[in-house]
Design a protein that fits this description.
It is a single chain. The protein is an alpha/beta fold and 236 residues long. It is 47% helix and 12% strand. It has nine helices and seven strands; from the N terminus they run βαβααβαβααβααββα. It has helices spanning 12-30, 45-53, 57-73, 101-111, 123-127, 129-136, 147-159, 168-183, 212-224, and strands spanning 4-8, 38-42, 78-81, 116-120, 141-143, 188-191, 209-211. The strands form two sheets. It has a four-stranded parallel beta sheet with strand order 5-4-6-7, with helices on both faces. The protein has a three-stranded parallel beta sheet with strand order 2-1-3, sandwiched between helices. Strand 1 (4-8), helix 1 and strand 2 form a beta-alpha-beta unit. Helix 1 packs across helix 9, helix 2 (45-53) runs antiparallel to helix 3 and helix 7 (147-159) packs antiparallel against helix 8 (168-183). The radius of gyration is 17 Å and the shape is globular. Pfam families: Asp_Glu_race. Keywords: Isomerase. This is Aspartate/glutamate racemase family protein. Belongs to the aspartate/glutamate racemases family.
C-alpha cells in the first residue's frame, strides 16, 4: 500500500474528516482490521488565513511547500492537499505527485452524468479562476452564487465552520443558496470547501451534491491501494 501524505490543518476540523474517510475506505475495501498507511502535516490555519486575506499567496505557497517536503521525508508516496482554496498554489507543490482535488471532483461529477454545476466554497474559490478553470477544463459548466450569497457562504465558513460551529440557521442559508443555483440551471452542486460537508449534504439539495472532502479522501485511499490512478496522469 502506498503512503498517503495528508497536508492538512486548513482547517483541522475538515482534516479530521480526511483521516476518518481514508481509513473507512480502506476498511471497506480490504475488511478486517485494515487501515490506511498515511502521514499528516497539519499547518497553523491562523497563519495561512492571514496570508490568504492579505493576498500573500506566494508566502502561503512557501509554507505549504515546506510542509510537503516534510511529508516526503516522512515517507509519503503522494500528496493530498486537504483544502480547496489552497489549490490555488497546488501546481507549485512539486516535491510529490499531487492528487488534485479539482480533478477528483470533476471525475465524480462527470461520472454522474452532470455537466452544469453550482460551486460553493470560500470567496477565493468561487471568485478566482484557479478552481473554476480546473473544473471547466474537464468540460463542466460552473455557476457560482450571486454576490450577496457568495459573501454569506464565505462568512459562514470562516466565522463558524472552521471553528466547529454548526448552526441550523446557517444550514438554511446554504439550502436557499443551493435552491437559487438550481433555479439558474445547476444540475448538481459541488461542496467546494472541505468544511461545508460539516453543515449540509444530499438531504439539503434537490439535485446531486458532490462532497469534495469525501471524494478526495476516498480516491486517495483507492490510489494508495492500487485501485485507481491519479486523474490526468499515467500513475496507477
Amino acid at each position: 500500500m502506498k503512503v498517503i501524505g495528508l497536508l492538512g490543518g486548513m482547517s483541522w476540523e475538515s482534516s479530521a474528516e480526511y483521516y476518518r474517510y481514508v481509513n473507512e475506505r480502506v476498511r471497506e475495501r480490504l475488511g478486517g482490521l485494515h487501515s490506511a498507511h498515511c502521514v499528516m502535516y497539519s499547518v497553523d490555519f491562523a497563519e495561512i488565513e492571514e496570508l490568504q486575506s492579505g493576498g500573500r499567496w506566494s508566502e502561503a505557497r512557501d509554507v505549504l511547500a515546506e510542509a510537503a517536503a516534510a511529508l516526503a521525508l516522512a515517507g509519503a508516496d503522494f500528496l493530498v492537499l486537504c483544502t480547496n482554496t489552497m489549490h490555488k498554489v497546488a501546481d507549485e507543490l512539486t516535491v510529490l505527485p499531487l492528487l488534485h482535488l479539482g480533478d477528483a471532483t470533476a471525475a465524480a461529477v462527470m461520472a454522474a452524468g452532470v455537466t452544469r454545476v453550482g460551486l460553493l466554497g470560500t470567496a477565493f474559490t468561487m471568485e478566482q479562476d484557479f478552481y473554476r478553470d480546473r473544473l471547466a477544463a474537464h468540460g463542466l459548466d460552473v455557476l457560482v452564487p450571486a454576490e450577496a450569497d457568495r459573501a454569506e457562504v464565505h462568512r459562514i465558513i470562516y466565522e463558524e465552520l472552521v471553528v466547529g460551529v454548526v448552526r441550523e440557521e446557517s444550514r438554511q442559508v446554504y439550502r436557499d443558496v443551493i435552491k437559487r443555483l438550481v433555479e439558474r440551471g445547476a444540475h448538481g452542486v459541488i461542496l467546494g470547501c472541505t468544511e461545508i460537508e460539516l453543515l449540509v449534504g444530499q438531504d439539503d439539495s434537490p439535485v446531486p451534491v458532490f462532497p469534495t472532502t469525501r471524494l478526495h479522501a476516498e480516491l486517495a485511499a483507492d490510489h494508495a491501494m492500487g485501485l485507481a490512478g491519479i486523474p490526468g496522469t499515467s500513475q496507477g
